[in-house]
Amino acid sequence: MRLRCNRKPLPRYCLRMRIAKGIVLESDLGIDQGRLRAKLLVFDSMKHMREFWRRVLFKTDLGPGCLGAVNSLMMEVVSFKNGTESKPWIETDPRYFCLIGLLRRHLTMEIITHEAAHAGIYYAKLKRRTPWDECIRRNNDEAVCYPTGKIAAAIVSVCRANKLIE
User: Fold this and answer.
1) Which of 43, 99, 115, 120 meets the CB 3.0–4.6 Å disulfide criterion with 68?
2) Is 98 strand, coil or helix?
């Protein structure tokens, strides 16, 4: 499937945005030698994370018990010209394969690894250019597990360096 870059990518520096409030940590996490990164944002409260998700990503689907969230920044697009459907393509961010949002008071290994697993799945889907579940159905769990471990380790490292966890 073809890849196209989104016309409105995620900003490089979310802390500089006027609408971004309550962000206590922002970091770009690299997991391989490529240029794709995961954007990590740690929020002071759930209210601030919901507001960011709503105003920047136009998503309102964070559940009531949500203690972290990941957005793939990827969508499958189909266009119609003169009543005929084009081949689908994947529209994605040119710099980031996902956005990880965590809460400062809930930086536990359980939540970090849970959200890193979502990010690992999105990374594998983007690498294989399959926006749905094909990368998991093929029993290719290594394509998900290695990135997941690298992402979780990077989150812990950044949070420790910024004294958010011990």
Assistant:
1) 115
2) strand
CB 98 within 8 A of CB 38: yes
Question: To 10 degrees, what angle do helices 109-128 and 142-161 make?
Answer: 130
Tokens linked to 43 = 């929020």
What are the φ and ψ backbone dihedral angles of 132, each rounded to 5 degrees? -105, -150
* Strand runs labelled E in the chain: 2-5, 23-30, 37-43, 68-71, 74-77, 80-81, 84-85, 89-92, 96-103
pLDDT of residue 74: 76
pLDDT of residue 132: 55
pTM listed for this prediction: 0.83
Q: Choose between 49 and 83: higher pLDDT.
A: 49
d(CA 141, CA 92): 23
- What are the residues whose beta carbons fall under 8 Å from the beta carbon of 27, sequence distance 6 or more? 39, 40, 158
Query: What is the per-residue pLDDT for 38?
Result: 92
Asked if 65 contacts 83 with a C-beta cutoff of 8 angstroms, the reply is no
Tell me which of 99 and 142 has the higher pLDDT.
99
Is residue 38 a contact partner of residue 72, using CB atoms and an 8 Å limit? no
